[in-house]
Write a structure and sequence with these properties.
Length: about 80
């Protein structure tokens, strides 16, 4: 092989080593829990507003927010 090819191969190896050495370290993030979410909640004794149509309410009381599970429900299969 000609010397130019060896030069290009050497530069490729050097650039790969530098790229691997300079990459940022990735920290593993902990998964979110229900306490980390900022969702409105219901308080006992608070008035329930009834709204027809679409409007913005500053003071709200949420009765149902939906399913916030991050694991699928357990499904049992029938056996013999």
């Amino acid at each position: 092989m000609d010397p130019g090819t060896w030069f290009y191969i050497a530069m490729l190896v050097v650039s790969l080593v530098v790229q691997v050495a300079m990459r940022p370290k990735i920290e593993h993030a902990k998964p979110l829990s229900i306490d980390d979410l900022n969702v409105p909640g219901a308080e006992e004794g608070r008035d329930i507003s009834v709204v027809f149509g679409t409007c913005w309410i500053e003071d709200f009381n949420v009765l149902d927010y939906g399913d916030l599970r991050n694991e699928p429900p357990i499904k049992a299969s029938g056996g013999k």
